[in-house]
Amino acid sequence: EKPLSLVLNKTEFMKIFKHITESTPLNLVVSDENGKKLFEHLAFIKMVQYDKLTDELRHVDFYVPEAHHKMKINVPVEVVGKAIGVEKGGILEVIHHEVPVKALPDRVPEVIKIDVTKLDLGSTLRVKDVALPEGVEIDMDDDDVLITIVVPRGLEVETTPTETTAEPEVVKKGKKEEEEK
């Protein structure tokens, strides 16, 4: 379908726009000048343009996806809970604040909530570790790191004792040692 130009009530739109993200599905109702409803679509905000001088809203592009085709869209990540590692002095580092997902338009989540309560010092949470709603997949490698608990310098980390470590075995003499003989 070709693009359609619409006129929005800026005040009403700005009330909504403050509380949504690019992954928020919108019920876009298009009416004529007399208020008669012409059609209604599930839509997403594709792009917003502002005036460079006044920072005033100038233009909004909406994307109306096909209902039965998976779409790819960036969805914000929301960290839930307090990690065990943070309580021990670690630093929670979010590597990806949003992730690309593939889903049918009516299944796109507004946000992906990730529970970090079980993450300890030095732990990482990867794409494969995220519980997703049915019909939603993250379009990244399963081993990509989303969140990690960084151990700050100087923080003592408990380690389990291992066997006594022996000196490494010299396999080949170095050049200087051979020349000295």
Explain this structure.
By secondary structure, the chain is mostly beta strands. The protein has two domains: 10-63, no CATH class; 71-150, Ribosomal protein L25, C-terminal domain (RNA Polymerase Alpha Subunit, Chain A, domain 2, Beta Complex). Helices cover 10% and strands 34% of the residues. The chain has helices at residues 10-17, 84-87, 175-180, and strands spanning 26-31, 37-50, 57-63, 71-80, 91-94, 98-103, 112-115, 124-126, 137-138, 145-150. Residues 161-170 have low confidence and may be disordered.
Give the tally of β-strands.
10
**Domain tally:** 2
Rg over C-alpha atoms, rounded to the nearest angstrom: 26 Å
Which sequence of strands runs across the widest sheet? 7-4-6-9
> End-to-end span in angstroms?
84 Å
Q: Name the CATH superfamily classification of the largest domain.
A: Ribosomal protein L25, C-terminal domain
Quaternary state of the chains: single chain
Shape: elongated
Q: How would you characterize the largest beta sheet? A: 4 strands, mixed
Mean pLDDT: 85
Annotated CATH topology of the largest domain: RNA Polymerase Alpha Subunit, Chain A, domain 2
Residues in helices, as a percent range = under 10%
The secondary structure category is mainly beta
Helix-strand pattern, N to C? HEEEEHEEEEEEH
Count of discrete alpha- or pi-helical segments spanning 4 or more residues: 3
Under CATH at level 1, the class of the largest domain stands as: Mainly Beta
